Amino acid sequence: MSGLEMESSSKPKRSIGVFERLSKDKPLKSFLSSIGRRRSPESDTSADDCSCVSDLSPVAKSVVSRCARILELPAAQIEKDFQTDVADYPKQRGLYAREYLQYCCHKTLHVLINRHNYLADKDFRSLTYDMMLAWQDHSTENQLLPNEKAQSNSLKVEDQNDGSLFYEDSTALAVQVDTKKTVGLRAFSKIAPCSPFIADFVTINNIFDMLTTSSAGSLHFLIYDKYLKTLDKILKSAKNYMSSQFAIRLNLSDGEIILAVEGNTPLNPVLKHEGITAWPGRLTITTHALYFESLRIGKNNARLVKYDLSGDLKQVVKRELTGPLGARLFDRAVMYSSTSLKEPVYFEFPELRGHSRRDYCSEIIHEILQAHIFIRQFNLEETERGEALSKATISIFRYIAIREALHTIPSNLKTTLPFNLANRLPREEVILEALFNYFKACPSPFFLHALGKLGFTSERSTDGCLCCFGLPKSLETALEESFDDSEKTKAASATVDLVKAEGLDANITMMKELMFPVIKAGKVIFSIINWDDPWKSTLFLVLVLYLIQRGWFYYIVPISFIFFAAYLMWHKLQSKGESLDALKIQVPSSKNAVEQIIILQDSISRVDDIVKEVNITLLKLRALLVVGVPKATEMVVLALFVLAGLLIFIPIEHLVLFQVVETLTREMPLRKKTTDKVRRRFRDWWARIPVAPVQITRLNKDQKNS
């Protein structure tokens, strides 16, 4: 039987239904069962009481009527409270109807979510879904077409007790849950987060995306109903774990909650790798630690090891490869390391295909770890610390429910775990700062009281769990900007995948084409320095000398930046928001496998030659530093003393002028012979320097393992 019950109406047909229901020997779970016996005639509320707000659509009037029955208030009184509580309510007809409806829904949900076991109540699930439908179709200005209304009114919702406790008439109600109508994101985001278990404002978009994966962004009641029923089952299962002998054996600390248990059956264990050994066992994830219970072969007792997640131990948790005897073969493990361990521990989650089991546990562990990092980062007080951890706990239960109900694992930027999402979005520090301010400003711990109601924590609310009506502007703005930036990042990543070319020759050709302006500018400068055209080189030399002499040389770089910025703005104005034209690149014809192997071998040999030349240069420098060649070292020492003297006694401006003139006149006809002579002398001197001795040894297998 349902957890909530509607009292009788003055209609004869409804009265018969109530007597029939009372005649059944079943317990009445709803607090409304006693309301019908003590209500006065003046407080009777019917659907017609909503007529005071004439702009409400039929579906909205039905929802307001049911809200009035639950609140035991006339609709007129609720409207009066609305105008009192919401001082800046909108005066426009359509907006007024929507805000009034939203006020009724929130006030009703404030009562309902304080009832025990409300997620298991089918009528609660139906009512909340109807609230979303009503929010979408709140006004007579946007109500359904006649044929759609006829379909909606003709539908019936089956109930094992022959009626819905939230409806005035179970056989001829005004608006029932319409399986052909669906709920959009905005309506879902206005109603669902009022319950701490159904949704969270931080991850509301991702939760909705997961629930509507198969329905193109529209939420059907059957999916919504299945999600809430699965969530209720997950919560009850977690509660059973907390009261079992298994929890007692773990010796949990105060406020520690069991979140997930993997490896419960011997056929599907978790393997813990330490060095080259692996032990099967059971991994328990709680709000404070990981507990691994290894099953030792030939021993009756299991060995329990705790790996802390709450302390500041520089914990690192990441996905890793594992395999037998320490081999890195299978991508299905989670690595845990901290300052309390000598070496990392690897937990492998065996499965026949894929690594979804590992990803599922990894997401949960990361959420708890990020929550504790957030707590330490902002030095939260006891109540705020409990609220942050409760938020992560409830989000994990929600995450498990989505996995069980929809057989999918939200990950990366689609995760439904708030601290994981904040850690992966752009502007992470802004989101966390806004979340901290939200916890500081919250008058009552919303998530902590919700867990306390179910008996997970010792925290109890005197007024019951307060209903969460929205986010502060700072957090909402931070989330919107972060999601906007993440969408831009995603779009940019998609363009990267489109331009990736296959083959070394194609990529080299693309690089040459993209670097063409730089290469062309380099060729021009190189031509000027080499005095290929004496007139251009002379003009360039005079210009540089004039800039240095006038003291304008230091303005060249900032002026170049200004010129470049002006060039970019000119291009922006010329493009007028149009997309870029595709860069046309002509790549050579594709080569067969043998030709590609030959090109690869040739490239590798060239790289090998370059590395050898670099090593020879470094070894010669080492010989100079350790005085392996005394005469050469003496020359280097003398050159360093001369250079130091020049830097001390000559102004830096004169040295820059000298270096510029020397570089630009090095290849001019008057100096070319002298330059070539100096280069030959330097090459001969460098060739006479021997390399420092090197002894190359190779490690054997035993040394590698040690």
From TrEMBL:
<keyword id="KW-1133">Transmembrane helix</keyword>
<dbReference type="Pfam" id="PF04842">
    <property type="entry name" value="DUF639"/>
</dbReference>
<feature type="transmembrane region" description="Helical">
    <location>
        <begin position="635"/>
        <end position="661"/>
    </location>
</feature>
<feature type="region of interest" description="Disordered">
    <location>
        <begin position="1"/>
        <end position="21"/>
    </location>
</feature>
<feature type="transmembrane region" description="Helical">
    <location>
        <begin position="552"/>
        <end position="570"/>
    </location>
</feature>
<keyword id="KW-0472">Membrane</keyword>
<dbReference type="InterPro" id="IPR006927">
    <property type="entry name" value="DUF639"/>
</dbReference>
<keyword id="KW-0812">Transmembrane</keyword>
<protein>
    <submittedName>
        <fullName>ArgH (DUF639)</fullName>
    </submittedName>
</protein>
